[in-house]
Amino acid sequence: MRNAFSELRSEKYELRAAGIYFPYFIILIPYFIPMNYDPQKIEKKWQKKWTAEKVFEAKDDPPRRLEGRGSDLAPQASEKYYALVEFPYPSGAGMHMGHLRSYTAFDVLARKRRMEGYNVLFPMGWDAFGLPTENYAIKTGIPPQTATKQNTTNFRKQLQSLGYSFDWSREVNTTDPQYYKWTQWIFLQLFKAGLAYKARVNINWCPKDKIGLANEEVISGKCERCGTAVEQREKEQWMLKITAYADKLLEGLKEVEYLPEIKAQQENWIGRSEGAEIEFPLVIASLPASGGRSVAIQLIKVFTTRPDTISGATYLVLAPEHSIIEKIKLQIANYKEVQEYIAETKLKSDLDRSSEGKAKTGVELKGIKVINPATKEKIPVWIGDYVLVAYGTGAIMAVPQHDERDRAFAETFKLPIVDKPLISFDEALAITGGKKTVTYKLRDWVFSRQRYWGEPIPLINCAKCGWVAVPEKDLPVKLPKVEKYQPTDNGESPLSTMTKWVNTKCPQCKGPAKRETDTMPNWAGSSWYYMAYLLSPNAFKNPVSLATWNLELDKLSYWLPVDWYNGGMEHVTLHLLYSRFWNLFLYDQGLVPVKEPYQKRTAQGTILASDGAKMSKSVGNIVNPDDFVKEFGADALRLYILFIAPFNQAAAWDNHGVLGTARFLEKIWKIGIHVGTSEARVSTSDTKVVRLLHKTIKKVSEDIESMSFNTAVSAMMIFINQITNYKLQITNEDWQKFLKILSPFAPHITEELNSLLATRDSLLLCQQPWPSFDPSLIIEHTFDLIIQVNGRVRGTIQAQKGITQAEAIELALLQESIKKWVSGAPKKVIFVPDRLINLII
RNA sequence: GCUCUCGUGGCGGAACUGGCAUACGCGCGUGGCUUAGGACCACGUCCCGCAAGGGUUAGAGGUUCAAAUCCUCUCGAGAGCACCA
């Protein structure tokens, strides 16, 4: 890209406008010819002004609207509007196109809402805990705190250069101890409510690096750093009982306006299914059944959604991890073989277990059988890794006749496939004594990380008292400074090496005790950040306590729920679910006034590289927003990212595309400079301009609401093209209306051009009311009547609106171009009022 | 494999409720601006045809006076879930 682009264009304009006709005036140019369109200059100028006048700061106690200031679209005085975009992880690479797309769209929304008279909150902050910063620290020794500071400074500068109307006075940072003291406090509420517990769970383990890996660090079953195959290893982890909220999380979806695909993903993730638990008695195979009187040594409970198929169940399959195996090992004839299979399974990662395609593996538990409670037949019992221990009861009744997977397994191991009649749900329960139950795919949330760069889990382990919460007055439990950021050889958090920090006193019995060294996952700080923006400075300054929190309830009540939340599609399962879970929990505790935190949720589509591939650092096809701001200005870049495609759709970036929106702004600049001069002032606009202006106001107003920014920009281009192409007259008042609707999209150029107008007052453009349109000016009195003969278009004529079918036929038949297609009276006529007439011959 | 979404010029895309397909922008072409040009201005730009006209929304069929839009199948792309009983 060249630097000369804008200079060249503007230079030419200046010569034409000023010099050509009156050469003597050239020396006077600096005096009354306004400057060229120089985005660099005007954008900084207005950004400074907005900041100085604090125009984007939301009021917790908003003043009443001035009388007569509102348009007819304006809401009641002091109505709030909370527009939220996902706060970024401030990576060293800076802002990317995904941020640009989301933030620009919501800046348009926020600016429009302010102009409509709402008290708007549009905040920004940093989700700054995370692996890249920690890995950077491991590599360079630079403390994550330092790197984060640099990165947020850079990121903030980038965001400000785009003219976003964020309320920077409310900026938050999840890694600030004054922030995470509240994250820790919320965790303690969960702990005290019995929703946090320790359990042994599988984690991804790299045997070479000897560390536990986050799922994000496992790339197709291999360690991201060294490429070694990842193993599963059991480790004690803190868990949050999100499953206790499965039904509430599902129910809550009915009350909110999420995009249908987002709702579907949440539902899918929770994965509720109704079915039955049925017990199968376990018997020794060698003993004769003798009329069903053989003695059951155990009962195996299975979960099924199809109890009606039970007569066709010809065998049972247990998950290899099923706890009953250990209990009945003496009865299993081939226990050694079974043990080997279990050991094999343990080594496999989840990915291995599913990536082996459809090939089913398993081992029969010889020496035992179960009795099918419906048929009373003895059927064999197998273990197989296609049955998951974590879902249902970890055991299934296999019905190869009705289930594809059971059929595959039966075919592999030559097990009987029988065609038995179905029975009703109720009948099946009656015969077998089964119980209706509900299961979920949703698993409890693994909340521990053996990492440095996260919130310390504020718990203390005492030999006498067990796990004890750190007292509120001692929060935050701050991250201590460490020498090395690496996890230890046995996979513990680097905090575990800080013996001084680890060894402490039990808050209850004052005896010697140890701190928890695990930290919280990334998702913790972002699970409540929409509330953090609402807290007063006191909440951050003062010690953490219920009383301090309760002082904030008024603000939470005023602002919540978030009216509209936007972010990436990649966060609509975990982050969205986790934060809804915390909110629901806090609601139950009386600590939050609303059940659902987000009233509406949308997601932007991905911006791809120009060849349609994903932008990625390793491929080197990343484009940097900074370059475009520098070259074409923030306004042109903002317009292009909105114009590129429908908001929720993936779109390929095109470097040339910005030229189009830059040219559009150039045209606007020329008109604006012209309209602003006293010679150009007219008392009325051309009728054509007025009509089109009102149509455009309507279109842009509606398109912003439906996130159709691309067509909104297109409508404004059409308006400008009409003025330029036909040299139409426009008054200062009408021009200002246009500048107003453009201002959320291109806030800098519009402020600048507005300042040239005779109609300007002391207010900034962005503080003025959103223009309303006059419906009477939009209604057309004529329309183009489409004339079809036998369904084919043969011509159009201008006609008065409201004409009858008879009039339309008469008009049509007068046309020379129609006459030649029609001979005699039409057999049939289809008439669509104010649109078309179709003559069937 | 299953579920969802989608397929329109050289490219990004527009088309309300089934009613003139290709708006707007990029790119490209021709000409102008007595130098140059990823600048600006004018005109042109789906295909066949001199024209009248005909064809065209991934492909094939269907419903309808009328289909990019509704239905069926095939092909292709993207996203999500991936053995959830």
Distance between the termini: 61 Å
Question: Which percent bin holds the helix content?
Answer: 25-40%
Low-confidence stretches: 1-34, 65-76
Q: Overall 3D geometry?
A: globular
Q: Please compute the radius of gyration using only Cα atoms.
A: 34 Å
Largest sheet: 7 strands, mixed
- What's the mean pLDDT score? 86
What class do helices, strands and sheet pairing give? alpha/beta
Give me the count of strands: 30
Strand content: 15-25%
Tally of contiguous helical segments: 30
What does this protein structure show overall?
This protein has 30 helices and 30 strands. It starts with a helix and ends with a strand. The strands form eight sheets. Strands 11, 12, 13, 14, 15, 16 and 17 form a seven-stranded mixed β-sheet that branches. The protein has a five-stranded parallel β-sheet with strand order 2-1-23-24-10. It has a four-stranded antiparallel β-sheet with strand order 6-5-9-18. The radius of gyration is 34 Å and the shape is globular. Helices cover 37% and strands 18% of the residues. The chain binds one RNA strand of 85 nucleotides through helix 1, helix 9, strand 12, helix 12 and strand 16.
